[in-house]
Amino acid sequence: MSFFREEFSARSAPVRVRFGAGVRRQVAEELDLLGARRALILTTPQQAALADEFAGYCGDHAVGRFIGATMHTPVDVSEEATALALALKADCILAVGGGSTTGLGKAIALRTDLPQIAVPTTYAGSEATGILGQTEGGVKTTLTSPKVQPEVILYDAELVASLPVGMTVTSALNAMAHAAEGLYARDRSPLSSLMAVEGLRAFRDSLPRVIAAPTDPAARGETLYGAWLCGTVLGQVGMALHHKLCHTLGGSFDLPHAETHAIVLPHAIAFNAAAVPDLLAPVADLFGGGPGLGLWQFAKESGAPMALRDLGLKEADLDRAADLATANPYWNPRPVTRDGIRRLLQAAWAGEEPAI
Ligand code: NAD
């Protein structure tokens, strides 16, 4: 299959990526290359030990740590961390963690224009995008700006080895969703499609190996490679139904991010496969069956949660979810109708197999 298009435009962010087990120990070299002397290290409270570890690698190139990164990037936390960065005269942000920590680093960069080094410990992919989601007064808004794109990414397989298997699986499916939706994006380029297919392939081959041996460095490395590719696709092209639905479910019903992506993905892809089977054929080729069914079977075999009801969503909420998800029109390869989305949500709620 060819990803050639007669017309396209493509953009790649100027990002330096270093990949390898143990590469985090070279973070001081990266600070030198940026000309930075005063890094502020960010983590979540749960990953505070990593802040200490990185302070050791940075030596006198670090001026402090903020270990308060939290879900949904609340604006008050970002303002507190920004005030600390300014008070310490930080000249670089070093964000070590999952999408929440990366999000905090981006929020500081938005307010200060400081350069960022992102060291991901999940597969969410935020480090590879210029997208920032922030929450204020219970409302999550998203912006895109080159200011928030991290300048350097260190992908170290040893850091994802601690990710529990359950989170590994949901985080991987979260990443795969970026690639699957990227395949039918209106603004896709041959490059984004090549990355999407290779990212999906990397997860298909390495996730079962990680589940069998969670600390296997080669298998973890390949999943992280998949995360980089899938995250880069997210940073380059627009998303559609799947991401909009997950945003609605997460924001309005407080459902957990990665688990929601994991459950909705096969259903959203099956819905769109009815309209663009050719564009989703690579997914069917990789996973067998139809594109949605193949992903559903892969998720099931990986032990992913399969039903929104298991995340606490009530059946009585499905009507409101369908209303909310169709309130603001957006582009999708298949027209988004209220009835169609209600049916999709019912199947995802019950954990049913998608039709194709
Ligand atoms: P997360 O960053 O919220 O982490 C979840 C929990 O896992 C945290 O308690 C964290 O401390 C812990 N954790 C992280 N890595 C670990 C590891 N290796 N071992 C053990 N525990 C670990 O989860 P996430 O799924 O990575 O990120 C979700 C957030 O990222 C959401 O807010 C989402 O909107 C955002 N996101 C943004 C983009 C973007 O481009 N802007 C892309 C993807 C996700």
Account of the protein in words:
- The chain has 356 residues and is an alpha/beta fold.
- The chain folds into 2 domains: 16-160, Rossmann fold, CATH 3.40.50.1970; 165-350, Up-down Bundle (Dehydroquinate synthase-like, alpha domain).
- The protein is 51% helix and 11% strand.
- It has 14 helices and 8 strands.
- It has a 6-stranded parallel beta sheet with strand order 1-8-5-4-2-3, with helices on both faces.
- Helix 6 (165-182) runs antiparallel to helix 7 (190-212), helix 7 (190-212) packs parallel to helix 11 (281-287) and helix 10 crosses helix 14.
- The radius of gyration is 20 Å and the shape is globular.
- Nicotinamide-adenine-dinucleotide is lined by residues 44, 46-47, 71-72, 97-101, 103, 121-122, 124-126, 129, 131-133, 159-160, 162-163, 171, 234, 257-258.
Shape: globular
CATH topology of the largest domain: Dehydroquinate synthase-like, alpha domain
How far apart the termini lie comes to 20 Å
CATH class of the largest domain: Mainly Alpha
The CATH homologous superfamily of the largest domain is named: Dehydroquinate synthase-like - alpha domain
Order of helices and strands: EHEHEHEHEEEEHHHHHHHHHH
Question: What is the count of helical runs?
Answer: 14
Order of strands in the sheet with the most strands?
Answer: 1-8-5-4-2-3
